[in-house]
TrEMBL record:
Protein name: Uncharacterized protein
Keywords from the UniProt entry: Signal
Region span, Disordered: 34-59
Top-rank taxon, per record: Bacteria
Length: 145
């Protein structure tokens, strides 16, 4: 009888300590838990999406293309760049506002037409033809070699 009690006591203690060990192991104290804790600690703050270029940077890139292709003088360059920045700012406001995509698209189309009209007023006849060709072909990014 004494051996049965000792065996049951031993079996009970073994089950109790085994269960405690597994509970700790699965709660982050075992290898799997340590790995996940280390991964969480090492990852640091989550990285956000890359920040889009500012309107000034975008206008500068467009002006680099226009300046070389159309032989703009300094005054034309400054005036056109300012027009492009105003246009990009207005388009950004439209994109952020509430409303349907169709109305936003129409508003952006109107801004683009006004921008083209203002730019054409600053150009001589030869430059106007070049600008119309560039607009018809779309602004394409030049590949860096």
């Amino acid at each position: 009888m004494m051996q049965k009690i000792q065996f049951l006591f031993f079996l009970g203690c073994t089950l109790f300590f085994t269960q405690t060990h597994w509970a700790q192991f699965n709660n982050g104290y075992g290898n799997n838990g340590r790995m996940s804790q280390m991964n969480q600690m090492g990852s640091g703050p989550t990285q956000s999406a890359p920040k889009p270029p500012s309107n000034e940077e975008t206008a500068s890139r467009v002006m680099e293309n226009l300046k070389t292709e159309m032989n703009l003088d300094a005054l034309q360059e400054i005036a056109i760049k300012n027009i492009l920045i105003q246009s990009l700012n207005a388009q950004g406001v439209i994109i952020k506002k509430e409303g349907s995509n169709e109305s936003k698209s129409e508003d952006i189309k109107v801004i683009s037409e006004n921008t083209d009209r203002k730019i054409l007023e600053l150009l001589n006849p030869d430059q106007k033809d070049l600008y119309k060709k560039i607009i018809a072909g779309g602004f394409k990014k030049k590949k860096k070699k």
